[in-house]
Amino acid sequence: MIDMKPYILLNSAMTVDGKIATECGQLKISGKEDWMRVHRLRYEFDAIMVGINTILIDNPRLTIHKIDADFKDNPIRIVIDSKARTPSDARVLNDDSDTIIIVSDRASDEDIQRLTSKAEVIVCGKNRVDLKKAMSILYDRGIESILQEGGSTLNFAMLEEQLIDKISICIGSKILGGSRSKTLVDGHGFAEDDCVRLELENFYQLDKDIILEYDVKYN
C-alpha cells in the first residue's frame, strides 16, 4: 500500500541566471506584486514548509501578512530540521500560528525538549529526516496541502524523493552571478536519464517579473 501524502507546490523566486539567494540571503529578487502573489498562495494551503537553513539565514515568520487576512487564516508552519537547530527565539516559533518541527535521531534530547515547549516536534529518520515518512505523518494529521518555500537543499531532497507535485517560479528581472550564490536546486544532481522533467502549464507577466507554472513529471 502506498502511503498518502499532501499535495505539494514548490514556490520560489530566482534571478534570470537561476540564483535564489546570496550566501547571506540578503537579496530581494521579485517585486511587490510577486510578494502579494506568494501570500495569496499561503492563504490557499494548509501548511508552509521550509528547511533549517531558511530559518537560520532569513528568520521568516511564515505567515500571511502582505494581504488582508484574519489571524486564524495563517497556515501551519513546518520546519525540516534534522539536528533540531531552530533557535528558541526564531520568529517561526511565535504565537501567530502552530509550528511543527521535524527532526531526525541526530537531534539531542536537550534540543528536542527545548523546542517542544514552543512547537510540536516529530522525530522521523536516522541521520536526516525521512521525508517520505514525514509527509505521510503530516497527511495523517490532516495536512493535505503544503506550500514549500525552502532553499536549494530542501528543494533537491524533496525532488529526489519525488514528493513535489507542481513548481511555481517567479523570474525576477535581475542577474546575480557568482559561484557561491544559491541556485533553485542544490545537491549532487541527477543522472541525465533520471532528471526531473517539467511540463509547462501556465506563464504570465507580473509587473516586471515572469511567473512560470509547471507540472512535475518523474521517470
Task: Give a short synopsis of this structure.
Helix content is 21%, strand content 28%. With 219 residues, the chain is of the alpha/beta class. The chain has a 9-stranded mixed sheet with strand order 6-5-4-3-7-1-8-11-10.
Structure notes:
This protein has 219 residues and is α/β, with parallel strands linked by helices. Helices cover 21% and strands 28% of the residues. The protein has five helices and eleven strands; from the N terminus they run ββαβαββαβαβαββββ. The chain has helices at residues 32-44, 52-58, 109-116, 131-140, 152-160; strands spanning 7-14, 19-21, 47-51, 76-80, 99-103, 120-123, 145-148, 166-171, 182-183, 197-206, 209-217. The strands form two sheets. It has a nine-stranded mixed beta sheet with strand order 6-5-4-3-7-1-8-11-10. β5, α3 and β6 (120-123) form a beta-alpha-beta unit. The chain is globular and about 45 Å long.
Features:
219 residues; nine-stranded mixed sheet; single chain; 21% helix; alpha/beta; two-stranded antiparallel ribbon
Give the low-confidence spans: none
Along the chain, the helix and strand elements come as: EEHEHEEHEHEHEEEE
CA-CA gap between termini: 20 Å
Averaging pLDDT over every residue, what do you get?
92
Sheet with the most strands: spatial strand order: 6-5-4-3-7-1-8-11-10
Overall, the morphology is globular
How do the strands and helices of this protein lay out in sequence?
Elements: E1 7-14, E2 19-21, H1 32-44, E3 47-51, H2 52-58, E4 76-80, E5 99-103, H3 109-116, E6 120-123, H4 131-140, E7 145-148, H5 152-160, E8 166-171, E9 182-183, E10 197-206, E11 209-217
Parallel strand pairs: 1-7, 1-8, 3-4, 3-7, 4-5, 5-6
Antiparallel strand pairs: 2-9, 8-11, 10-11
